[in-house]
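User: Here's a chain of 371 residues. Predict its fold as tokens.
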Amino acid sequence: MEYVQERIATLHAYDDPNPSAPVEQAAVVVPLAGRDHGTPAAERVFSTLEGVGPGRVVVALQSDPGAVGNAVDWLESFDLPLTVLWCDAPPVEAALADAGLDTDGTGGKGRDVWLALGLAGDAEYVVVHDADATTYDHTHVSRLLAPVAAGYGFSKGYYARVENDRLYGRLCRLFVVPLVRALAAEHDAGLLSYLSAFRYPLAGEFATTGDLARQLRVPRGWGLELGTLGDAFTQAGFAGTAQVDLGTHEHDHRPVAGQQGLGEMAGEVGRTLFTVLEAHGISPDYGRLPERYAAVGRRLVEQYAADAAFNGLDHDAEAERAQVERYAATITPHSGDSRLPAWCETSVDPGQIADRSAEALAGIGPTPHGR
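Assistant: Prediction complete.
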């Protein structure tokens, strides 16, 4: 057990705390892929939320028309103050196109969370977390929310990724962490110091005030977490940010290769990071960066190997070094800022988006869904 503080307030879970927090004033945003409804992890998340008592739960649902009805029926079986937003419903996509925000096939988790933030941002507080954690606990919402209710503008979760006697969290510890360290060694910048203070910068769990939620510019696909941190730095800064210990986190693991594998994700996450950095006046040397990143990554692999051996965990250092080299090859300049605008800066009406979603859901079949 340790109690080390970073440049941001670091709140440790010394004895499984469940701090007092105004959960009834919070909207909880949960992105969900339609194929994941009914899984044990999602079942655990939503059944646990029943006992948490949030003021509102906004599910950002991504689903094809053939599966959306079953997903909504399953979601509405839970006793929750629920709003289901069908993010890729044709009328919703048409509304975005009319507003000049056509996703051009690049819609993903980021786009879905952004849409849900539009609906949730009128709450006093907003909490965002995924639906795939088999270790989800009833204290997670209150832990994330407590520092925000105490005056911090933004809080983010962190956790250990240890499962089946192995270290996971590969994209974070083998790509993002060494990449940020390599950049920080070359650029004396507040933003890089801020990113370095987070123990798990790719954690999808965060809480914020409703006001700050409306000021977030969100990448459409992968890279949501780093895009969010860029705006949190601007709006909350070191003094207004906390990170919260959520214990041990377990969820499904992605392969490194293949479509939507970690290699593909690394490229998109990196480009989001570079977008945020350049928006803050930081210009990486893309010619030298891949090798500088890889050198830091290789050193970290040796440290992870020592940590794993100390704890009796399995660890394949050669495979992890190969991952570092694969990720290094994805480091390329971004091709423009494709983040969605902050809700406070767009003419899109969140109520219209909700209405378009409800109309689409009402038209999928005879089963009433209370929309």
